[in-house]
Each structure stands twice: as C-alpha cells, then as structure tokens.
Amino acid sequence: MPLRFVIEKKIPRAQGRAGTLLTAHGTVKTPAFVVVGTKATIKALTPEQVRDLGAQIILANTYHLYLEPGDNLVKKAGGLHKYMNWPGPTMTDSGGFQVFSLGAAYGKELSKITKITDPSFLLSERSSDSELPRLAKIGDDGVSFRSHLDGSLHYITPEKSIEIQHNIGADIIFAFDECTSPAENLRYQEEALGRTHRWALRSLEYHKNSKNGSKQALFGIVQGGREERLRKKSAKVLSEMKSQGGSSFDGFGIGGSFAKEDMSTAVKWVNETLPEEKPRHLLGIGEPEDLFLGVENGIDLFDCVAPTRNGRTGTLYTRKGKINITNKQFQNDFSAIEEKCDCYTCRNYSRGYVSHLFKAKEMLAATLGSIHNLRFIISLVEEMRKSILTDSFFGFKKDFLSEYLR
Amino acid sequence: MPLRFVIEKKIPRAQGRAGTLLTAHGTVKTPAFVVVGTKATIKALTPEQVRDLGAQIILANTYHLYLEPGDNLVKKAGGLHKYMNWPGPTMTDSGGFQVFSLGAAYGKELSKITKITDPSFLLSERSSDSELPRLAKIGDDGVSFRSHLDGSLHYITPEKSIEIQHNIGADIIFAFDECTSPAENLRYQEEALGRTHRWALRSLEYHKNSKNGSKQALFGIVQGGREERLRKKSAKVLSEMKSQGGSSFDGFGIGGSFAKEDMSTAVKWVNETLPEEKPRHLLGIGEPEDLFLGVENGIDLFDCVAPTRNGRTGTLYTRKGKINITNKQFQNDFSAIEEKCDCYTCRNYSRGYVSHLFKAKEMLAATLGSIHNLRFIISLVEEMRKSILTDSFFGFKKDFLSEYLR
C-alpha cells in the first residue's frame, strides 16, 4: 500500500473528520491545506520557509512540469522531492484541469472560481461549433492541445498523464480527467463524465500494473458539475472501480469549477457516496469560508493558489477579513498584519514595512505576503482539526466566520 | 566614541590589514563585504538569509529612503534596524552618489563602473552649457534635484543629508559629497573637490553637535577622481578635518567612479595618506579581482550591488569565473553551481534546477542566485582575512585569481 489513512475522530452528526495520512515521505495530519508549487517551486518561498510555516504537503503541476523543464528531466534529477529540495509528502495533479484551461485558453490566466462567470472563457474552453479558435481538442482516447508557453502541439492520454506523473514521482498522483465547465448542457456533462470514468479506469490499470503502482498512491477524480445525479454517479463509479488485478483508488479528488454557492452541496453529495475510509481532496479550493464547508462535509485535503497569489499582490488575510496592504492607510501603521498571527512576517514586520515593500516593488513583499497568507490558512485548518478533536468544530466555525465575514 | 576599530594584523610590505570594527549593534571582522539593502531590504532575501550566509553589516540608501517611504517614517517606525528587522550593524551612504546619478539621469539606471565609458551619461550627469536637460543643480550650499520616481523637486544640503541619516539611524553614516565623473576636466574636479571638503566640514559640524553625534559614526568621503594630487589632497584634508568641538571623522569612504585600471592606484594614494588607525570603506566596489586589490591596499570595507544584481539575473560566480546559468547547457547539469561553495543554494540545489527557475521566471531564482553570489563574495573576503592572519595573502591571491581570471 503506497498510502495509509487513519480516521482519528469524526464531527458528530456531520461527515467531517480528523485523520492521519501516511505517505512514503512522511505523515500529514488532516484536514490539511496542500501548498501549491506549480512549477516545482512555491512562488517566492524556499522549501524551508514553507515547512516552517507549518505546511505538511505540497502539490506540483503535471501540465506545467511536462512542458517545462520536462518530466524526463525531473526524473533524471532524482524526482520531484530531490529536484526541488522538498523531502516531505508531495502530490501532482493529473494535468487535466490545465490542459482544458491553459491549453484551451492560450495566453490567458484563469482562476477556477471566476471561470463560471466569465463568458469569454466559457466560449474559449469549448464551443460546439468550429468558428472559434480552439487549442484543446478532446477525443475519446485523449486530448490534443497547444502549449500556453510556445504554442507547440501536444497529445495527452490517461496513460501518458500517469507516465508523466511517474517520472515526476510525487507520493500522491491523480487520474486524468476532463474538467467540464458547469455551463455546459446536461448532455455534454454526461458524455464528458463517461469519458472521465473511462479515463479513470485506464489511469488505474496503467498505474497499478506499473512498478510505481506500489510506490505512488493514485486518486480518482469525481466530476459531474452541478448535477446531484451525476456527482453521486461519479462518486459511486469511482468508488467501485477496480483494475483487472483488483486494485482500487487510494483516495479521491473532487474536481470541477464550482460556483461559490454550489460547492458545499456538491461536496456533500459526493462524500455521502465515497467510501468513508479513504482520503478526499477538494481540488483548487482555499478561501476560509470554503474550507469550513469542505471540512464540515468530509474533505481531508485542499489545495489552492489563492493564499500565495493574494500574498504576492498585497491582499492579506486577517481575522476581520482581507485587507489590501498597499492602501495608503497602512504606510504609517506599525502594528502586525494580524495581531493573533504567529507567522514569521507578523512576528518581525509591521504593516507599514510590508506596505513599503509592495510600493517599492521589492521581492521581499511577495515573500512576506505569501508567508503570512499561507500561515493564516494553514493555522486556520490546524484550528479546525483541533476543534474536531475537542468536539468544538461548530463553535469555532461560528466564532471565526462571524468575525471574518461581518 | 560611536565606533572602535582595532587592527589585528597587517600584510607585510603592503597596506592591507585584518581588523575588528565595533559598532553600537555588533562587531564586524574586517576586511568585510557590506551587503547593499538599498530600500531597507536586501532584494529577494530575508534578513535571516542574509545573516546565515555570513553577512555582518548592511548598507541602506539615504536617497532612496528619503524619497520612499521617507526618513521620518523610518524614524517613527523605530529606526532602520527595527523597521527592516536587521538587528546587526548598518550603514547609510550620504545620498550624494544617487543625487548625481539617479537624480541627474532621470529614468535611467546606471552602474558605477560603466559610467565612465558611457558618454550619454557623462553628458547627462553634468554639462557645461544649458542645452541638455539637467535634473540635478549644484550650488555651493547644496543640490536641487528631481526624484527619479515622480519628478518632484528636492533640495539637499550637507546638514539635510545628515539629518536624514539621523532619522534613519544607521551605525555608520557618510558625509554629503559631490561625486564627479572622472571625465570632467581638471578645473572642474578641483572646484568640486573644494565643495566636497566644505560639505564634509558642514556634515561633521552638524553631526558632532547633535545628540546623534555620540551614537552614530560619521565617515568622510575622499574624492579627487583620477588625479594623484587631488586624491592625496582630499585624503589629507579629511584626515585633518576637525569640528569646532575638536571631533574628527570616525572613518573614511573612498568615492568616485573608477575605471577598472585606475581603482587600485587611487586607493593606494589615498590610503598612504589616511590615518592608519581608522577604518576605510571603498564605495561601490565588489568584483573579486577588485576586492583583492582593495584589501591589499588597505581597504577594510566594501559595498556593491553587483553580487545581488548578478544573482537576480542569472550571472553566478564560480571559482572558474562567472557563468550565465540560463544557458542551455546547464539545464541538464545536476551538479552544484560551485562545488567548493558552502552556501544554501549549492548545498540544496543543482545548476539544472536553478536554471529551470530562471527560465520559468520564478522568484526563487533571484533568491537562490543572490544567496550564492553573496556567499561567494563574502566567503572570498573571509578567506582574504584568514590569509592575512596566517601571512599567506599573496599566495591566496595568486591561487584564486589564476583560476578565476584564466
């Protein structure tokens, strides 16, 4: 078994739980926030800074590393852990999401949450006619797409995605899936979901029959958009899926582009169906209010670029909501970003100084902002875990959100 | 006395020496390389990273901090040490060099060494007629100049420069000087040098009569271009200069734009004249071959942006000379940047990984490059110091440069 998961305690009358995930490179106490290191580096931070702020596990990106520097190079370098100097637990996503978003929307950068309200993206992601330029083409066997870096043509199948993830060598890898837009019609959603399930089986077969099958854990990805029936079907199909040798998935990802109000319903449907004893990862979600909903409904792992992206642009988390540290009022403010925060930034620097760094476009701004935001989110998830263990989750949720969202 | 300097050992038949500088915020073993933190931050690094690579003292920039965030704000924040989280020894330059370079060359960025061969800069720096736009205007009382940030008009006198440096609060501050181009004619050099000396005396008077006079050390700046007579005169005048209360400078800077081949001669002239018992800082010099010449000729302190600027752009020091890590050949090279280097970067990352970070425009590239280059230079100066203490300076110099410059 490349992975073990132990549930320590459950939230009474809810699906949420606190647990421990044991990987080949160390242990993760859950629920846990997975720090995103897209291109085998957490932007603006050293791995030691990431570890020191309490991160237990990081996620690198299959699509990006396949294109640059290339998964074969990462393998030659001794694998992801050694290449990037992160000896702890790691994940790679399957590349599906990026193939359909970056590969499709050549030259554009899109966040998962905004997609749903951005009609231009919905059009560029997939259009039913051939009038619009399309960079990703979906066939039943795989996807051809153009690199967002240089426009070169590539073709990824489920087997290829797994092979790339073998070369990268993370502890947890994901099955190749089609990430559909929730704006697609039902007929397309069903068709895409069928494809995602066929690809999941091919990913599972390929992985479990390889020598990496016993070293790396494989998670299947539940899709199904906003449809209860499809979400539940997807969770059931993937839960029961077995390779010819009888292997099943080691855990599950929940994918898709969620509208804010849909997310917790979709998670609930899915987690009611997924086997309780296996870990569940909600892909691309990381705002405080969403983390509470996810944890409550049984999510063990989250990843999101929001804390680091916000951190690099000066949007910083406080218990009273987000602030934009570049606002003039903070230049003369010599208090910490968040009084109750124990992060390196808050222990050593004032709002005024961080504001100065952003204004002067100094790189340390991004470092200090990312450290604070990541620590804020990670310490929030640590507190959620503690509250589960002490039977006080809902009290903590109420206290935190009443201050944060007021 | 805001500063003590003890010479521990001299190079036989040369002016070079190893010593200890005692400041209000700690001790500096000399010769020492001073790390430049222009805007109260060492670009791309935390203060802890700077300390861990062996830096003993840092230099912030009066001109830049005066414009942004303002010296009064730094004072209000508790001074430079507290504001930027660097508890060790600090310096500020006088702002003279930047007023004449950045203030004059609005919108341009210029390195000290290249100035001499860049005719467009020489013209823009000062022109004898009024046809060219000039942003800095020199009067006998001070300099008016336009901010390179927003074009706003400012006026700095020697007293104002010292007042700004009091507000910033570094352990060692510099007298306000006029930094002339070596391309100026002799008549102008003499005139400017006279002004620099009058400004030095005003800086000395103002500082030593203030309450900060006993807390911060003041260095005078020797100018005089490429002229032996002027350099020696400047060194003599500043050595003998005394305030009305009988105070003299606590140490000396050697300023000016040097051509590579002039530097060591100018330093030699000056240091033959300066009092042996006081520390000497060569301003803006930091390439390995120049450091050897400086140390040999009696320089105790150096500062330069080259290691960090090179580090941010991928030009990295090795014992065999500089390499451009972004070159294709390094992508598949999994050895350390420099085998013999003990820095964080070389201990944990390969050339291939650092190359990938630069190619992918990741911020960690600048961090790892700066750490390596600074450690390379600082460890070189540490070795020079050790070689002085063990009477082997010239042997070390020969060995190092024969490999480095071949």
From TrEMBL, chains A, B:
Gene of this entry: tgt
Organism in which the protein naturally occurs: Candidatus Zambryskibacteria bacterium RIFCSPLOWO2_01_FULL_45_21
Instruction: Show the active-site residues.
Output: D93 (proton acceptor), D303 (nucleophile)
Q: Which Pfam families match?
A: TGT
What role is this protein assigned? Answer: Catalyzes the base-exchange of a guanine (G) residue with the queuine precursor 7-aminomethyl-7-deazaguanine (PreQ1) at position 34 (anticodon wobble position) in tRNAs with GU(N) anticodons (tRNA-Asp, -Asn, -His and -Tyr). Catalysis occurs through a double-displacement mechanism. The nucleophile active site attacks the C1' of nucleotide 34 to detach the guanine base from the RNA, forming a covalent enzyme-RNA intermediate. The proton acceptor active site deprotonates the incoming PreQ1, allowing a nucleophilic attack on the C1' of the ribose to form the product.
The top EC class is transferase
Q: Which HAMAP family match?
A: Q_tRNA_Tgt (MF_00168)
The biological processes this protein is annotated with in GO are: tRNA queuosine(34) biosynthetic process
- EC number annotated for this UniProt entry: 2.4.2.29
Q: Protein name, please?
A: Queuine tRNA-ribosyltransferase
